[in-house]
Amino acid sequence: MLPILKVNEIFYSLQGEGARSGTANIFIRLSGCNLSCSFCDTNYIKFTPMSLPAILDKIKKYPCDWILWTGGEPTLQLNNKIIAWFKNIGYRQAIETNGILPIPDGIDYVVVSPKKGTVLCDNLKEVDEIRLLFFKGDKLPDKKVFPKASYHFISPVDNPKDKAYYINVIKKNPEWRLSTQAHKEWGIR
Question: Which residues of 6-22 are buried (b: 16+ CB within 10 A; e: fewer)?
């Protein structure tokens, strides 16, 4: 029997953050989170129960083969069977996670956005990108505290319009990159 997912929303847009910024994705935002961050901009409580075939019916109209699982926290619901089901149909899949719980096998692109005071899951040895939520005045941690990653980004949280400050942080720490929420600048979701 196929699982039922608690889906907050499904929409088609461009990724606005990180290394895949500007690419078309089918965003599947799942409900529920294992954290309660004061700065979260997602209503991760409301949901519609959806079967995998119902999700497929909704997304197959889009001319895109990338699903981006996001949340809330998608690892609360996703498992190997769900990822394999969509992979067998031909979808590539990315995930944006806080990294506390194990990530299902078969994910094609993994973004971990660690939160202060949390411990990352032991199975996270290598990911595609670390996207660190960054407040003005924060100290950048040593990259060695994170899993091996192709990209390391800071994402301004408190005042992303203070670009000069964040540009200066990157200039002083060139092993990091700046990731702003470009989709908001573009006027899209």
Answer: bbbbbeebbbbbbbbbe
Percent of the chain with pLDDT over 70: 93
Which phi and psi angles does 43 have, rounded to 5°? -85, 90
Instruction: Identify the structural domains of the chain with CATH numbers, from first to last.
Output: 4-186 (3.20.20.70)
- Are 31 and 19 in contact by the 8 Å Cβ rule? The answer is no
Q: What tens digit of pLDDT does each residue of 57-98 get? A: 999 999 999 999 999 899 999 999 999 999 999 999 999 999
Instruction: Retrieve residue 136's tokens.
Output: 């003005």
Under the banding of pLDDT at 50, 70 and 90, the label for residue 1 is: confident
pTM score, whole prediction:
0.92
Instruction: Specify the DSSP element, H or E, that contains 50.
Output: strand 48-51
Q: For residues 146 and 120, give the distance between their C-alpha atoms in angstroms, rounded to a whole number.
A: 8
Question: Is the CB of residue 118 less than 8 Å from the CB of residue 35?
Answer: yes
130-139 long-range CB contacts below 8 Å, 24 or more apart? Answer: 131/17, 131/18, 131/96, 131/155, 131/179, 133/39, 133/157, 134/166, 134/169, 136/162, 136/165
**Helix (H) / strand (E) containing 184:** helix 182-186
